[in-house]
Amino acid sequence: MSVTIQFDLPEEIIREAQRLGLLESKRMTAMLAEEVRRGHARQELKKALDQVRSAPGEPMTMEEINTEVGATRKERRGA
Predict the structure, then answer these.
(1) pTM of the model as a whole
(2) Which residues are CB-contacts of 5 (< 8 A; sequence separation ≥ 6)?
(3) Pair 21, 27: CB distance under 8 Å
(4) How far is it between the farthest Cα atoms of the chain?
(5) Which residues of 17-44 are buried (b: 16+ CB within 10 A; e: fewer)?
(6) pLDDT, tens digit only, all 79 positions of the chain
(7) Measured in whole angstroms, how far is the alpha carbon of residue 64 from the centre of its chain?
(8) Taking the domains of the chain in order of start, what are their residue ranges?
(9) Are 65 and 59 in contact (CB under 8 A)?
């Protein structure tokens, strides 16, 4: 599928974008694909944060977090 996009940009931005190759089709596709990926990652992170924030109980202390991280690292090293 093909889409034509038109932008109204200041001359200075156009010149610099052309110099950097940012207006080429492959480059624009790569930039848009990266932004789509980031958008999905933001949505997933927000969903995970909402789940964590809605979990019952008290938040873990930094000491408890460090203990869990240490145990996980130890377990992974042993695996």
Answers:
(1) 0.62
(2) 28
(3) yes
(4) 59
(5) beeeeeeeeeeeeeeeeeeeeeeeeeee
(6) 888 999 999 999 999 999 999 999 999 999 999 999 999 999 999 999 999 889 899 888 999 999 999 999 999 998 6
(7) 28
(8) 11-78
(9) no
